[in-house]
Amino acid sequence: MIDRRPLLDIITHLVLIIGVIAVCFPLWMTLVASTHAPEALSSGRIPLWFGDRAWENFSDLLAKGLPEAGGTPVGLMMINSLIMALGITIGKLAVSIIAAFAIVFFKFPFRPLFFWMIFITLMLPVEVRILPTFDVVTKLGMLNSYVGLCIPLVASATATFLFRQFYLTIPAELVEAARMDQAGPLRFLKDIVLPLSRTNIAALFIILFIYGWNQYLWPLLVTTDPTYTTVVMGIQRMVNAGESLPVWNYIMGTATLALLPPVLVVIFMQKIFVKGLVDSEK
Questions:
Q1: 81 and which of 195, 212, 230, 235 could share a cystine (Cβ 3.0–4.6 Å)?
Q2: How far is residue 7's CA from residue 233's CA, in Å, rounded to a whole number?
Q3: Across residues 134-149, what is the average pLDDT?
């Protein structure tokens, strides 16, 4: 039986409360600042409560955008970021699942060599190979396109490694049973491997979606058309407005809108992740 210590409980709760305040206070200030007029933020005093310009600020951002950011509506920026994030996430998951499945369940020459060739690409992130990648994308005519935003980033050695390690834990008796039932590779993948992998897929989906949503350098290089501007690029352009002063209420509003999709994905996929952990029939 665990002894309860009131003083220790109080200290623990105080630490938790301080941690929550430290994490949430910047988010609170961002949301509050997005509801005020520009004059309220340029006066030197930061308001701590909501203003009366929330509807006007967010409607202007979603429908019109700012001239300092190229005049692209933030709604279009979020659509571009969403397409890019989903394209990268789904592409990485599909490529990684198929690659790991082939490495683990198929027998072919130099199989370990191919795995290590994939794994060694961890030392070559997109920032290292950005010049040859940009050259290939340019020659293929994929500049200013969603394909150019997504395809060069779909390969993932990390996801392939994680799926491979999980597939190695699948009992050989299960593979033999599938063969006795005359299940082909695709049926074995669809009916057995993928259902068993749902926890891994949910966890990786969260990580990869946030990775794709927060991309800045690659979209900056492959897009010159303002209609393909992502929300992260838009925030940077609003802050670096050149000779004009930053419009902080719009910047904070854009940052608030940019937070929503990753937060919703984390909340939604977290339920699936926890369900996969506690489901006794998986």
A1: 230
A2: 48
A3: 88
